[in-house]
Amino acid sequence: MPFNPTRRSLLTALGAAPLVLRIKGAFAAAGFPEKTVNLVIWSGAGGALDTYGRQLAELLTKEAGWTVAVQNRPGGSGAVGVSTVLAQAPDGYNLLVCTGTLTFGIAQGLIPFKLEDLRYVRAMQAEPSSVAVRADSPLKTLDDFVTYMRDNPNKLRVGGHAPAGFHQFILFQLGKMGKFESGWIPHDASGKVPLSLLGGHMDVAIMTPSSGLSQVESGEVRLLGITTEERSHFFPKVPTFKEQGYDIVDSIWRGVAVHGKTPDDIVARIQEAIDKVEASRDWLDFQNREKQENINLGEKAFTQLVNRQLANQTEFLKSVGLVK
Amino acid sequence: MQVLVDTLAVLFSLSGLLSVIAGAAIGIVVGALPGLGPSIGVSLLIPFTYSMSPENSMLLLISLYMAAEYGGSISAILLSTPGTAAAAATTIDGFAMTQKGLGNKALAISLSASTVGGLIGGVALLFLAMPLSKLALQFGPASYFAVGLFGLTSVAALSGGSLVKGLIGAALGLLLAFVGIDPIAGMPRFTFGRIELFEGIPMLAVLIGLFAVSESFLLAESAGKTRGGVSKGAVRAVYLTLKEWKELFRTMVSGSVIGTFLGILPGVGGNIACWVARDYAMRRNPKLAFGEGEPHGIAAPEASNNATVGGAMVPLLALGVPGSPTTAVIVGALVLHGLRPGPQLFAEQPVLVYTILLGLLLACVVMFLIASVSLPWMSRVINLPDSVLAAGILIFAILGAYSLRNLAFDVWLTVGFGVLGYLMKKLSFPVAPVVLALVLGYLVETNFRTALVTSRGSYGIFFTDPVSAVFLALSLASILYPMWRSRRDKRIKAA
Question: Which residues constitute the signal peptide according to the record (chain A) (predicted)?
Answer without folding.
Answer: 1-28
